Amino acid sequence: MASNQDAKFSLPPANDMERQLSLELDEKEFDYSKRSQWLRAAVLGANDGLISTASLMMGVGAVKRDNKAMILAGFAGLVAGACSMAIGEFVSVYSQLDIEMAQMKREKKRAVGVENKEEKEGGAKEGLPNPIQAAAASALAFSVGGMVPLLAAFFIREYKVRMWVVAAAVSLALVVFGWLGAALGRAPAARSCIRVLIGGWLAMAITFGLTKLIGSSGL
Length: 219
What we know:
With 219 residues, the protein is an all-alpha fold. The protein has one domain. It has helices at residues 2-8, 14-63, 67-110, 114-126, 131-154, 159-185, 189-216. Helix 2 packs across helix 5 (131-154), helix 2 packs parallel to helix 7 and helix 6 packs antiparallel against helix 7 (189-216). The radius of gyration is 26 Å and the shape is elongated. The relative contact order is 0.14. It is a multi-pass membrane protein. Vacuolar Fe(2+) uptake transporter. It comes from Forsythia ovata.
């Protein structure tokens, strides 16, 4: 009798415990990876808005010293870029949603048993992408990055000071975005910051130089 009670209340084998622990760790790692992908996309979207808006403002500033012209150009670029990002992300994610829904229908036909169908369908619906959410997130991320050069130039009237302040604010934001991207991707931070910073400087310098060249030629 005692042997039966011992067997009834005995602990599970060590292999089962290790397997369960490893499954829990895998689920946590999967959740972290899923979150990091969204955060990484948001950082990249903000970085895109930052560089695009700043380069556009630098290009206009190369031929127009007026603060209003520079601000209006940057604002137009921010709105246009955010709308473009939102529409592109909506179309892309909606296409992915259509593909996954079609795959769900094929799997539902092959599923055996009502309970099995309900479990699979419920789990699959939870992981489906949301086109509206993705579009809003892309537009918001782009707008956050684009607001940096706009706010930096908004209150400064002096042309040279305004250009330097915009360049400094954008450089600082590029370093921050580069560090965030490296932290989320578990990559070397210094190398990532330098890459993003040099890329942003090149974009602004090329836009400024080409616009200055075209403007000075009288076109």
